[in-house]
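Standup notes
- DV: blocked on the single-chain target, sequence here:
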Amino acid sequence: MINFNEAPFTGREFQYMERAVKNKRISGDGEYTKKCSAWLEAPAGGAKALLTTSGTHALEIAAFLCGIQPGDEVIMPAYTFVSTANAFALRGAKIVFVDIRPDTMNLDEKLIENAVTERTKAIVPVHYAGVSCEMDAIMDIAGRHGLKVVEDAAQAVMGTYQGRMLGSIGDYGCYSFHETKNYSMGEGGAILLDREEDVHSAEIIREKGTNRSQFFRGMVDKYSWVGLGSSYLPSDLNAAYLWANLEEADRILNQRMSSWNLYYERLHGLEEKGKISLPVIPEGCGHNAHMFYIKARDLKERTRLLDWLRRREILAVFHYVPLHTALAGRRHGLFCGEDVYTTAESERLLRLPMYYGLGKEEINRVCQAVEAFYT
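- DV (later): unblocked, structure below
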């Protein structure tokens, strides 16, 4: 059986988790939480990173910081995970879905401005598969309309746009370290901030509405409830596991990139014959090989291909069901403009096995099975 995903494991995870226990500090903001935060901050040009209990919670903190109120509108693609919308809907926002680009599956930057109204407060670009949205255009629109930009970079750790780290371009960047991501702590995430006032507010939100972080730094003589918040601070045990991944981040990236390139080389012939479509990486976008997908002709063909692979013990999967078609999506959001590509492209997309440690023989077996289907 070739699994679709396996959580990254480098060999030092248990060693670091044991050390965290021996340090007698397994709650949040211990040695490994600080190491992981510093790793994220290093290429971000002075921004501050705060680890969170999930990518979802990073987005929720961002929604807090954006000051989202009931009746506000937030623009995003419908082709994304539910957390992207939930974080803002929980604050009472109306989610305004915009169509995607068929080449990258990202928010179509050319359609954003038509969705802006006097109620719009934020734009949430999602860097699908670790491939950047057109951030220069998005930041220009946001600047002209006074909008916040929250980068959903859940899949995009170590991805870049025009040489800049994804998650560091907008007002806030949100990452995920779920077990399905390139680097994992089981469940976890992080938010990246570049304004001191936002860091102060985010620490309060993350620490259940208290100024506990300031207390531990000796800035106040006692801590108390000073605002609204929740428990968004992860255990240092989780961070210890993540640190073992981040220490080997380049090796993990290089191995995943080799797998991605092998898939592309092996399956390029099918694309040339018009049988499938392969991922597109626009100029200026440095992706992180988070996933490798192909696109079948339509939903019917994709369903048959998934079954074909499963019967050959290859676990491939489809991805998101567009949020505007879901019950909660219809309740909390609306689609602006015409759904030209979101549904049609989502029904074609099929994700092939991709994880750290996936071998060449396994990739070749997957490719042989796909080729056999189209023979």
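- Follow-up: The chain has two domains: 13-246, 249-373.
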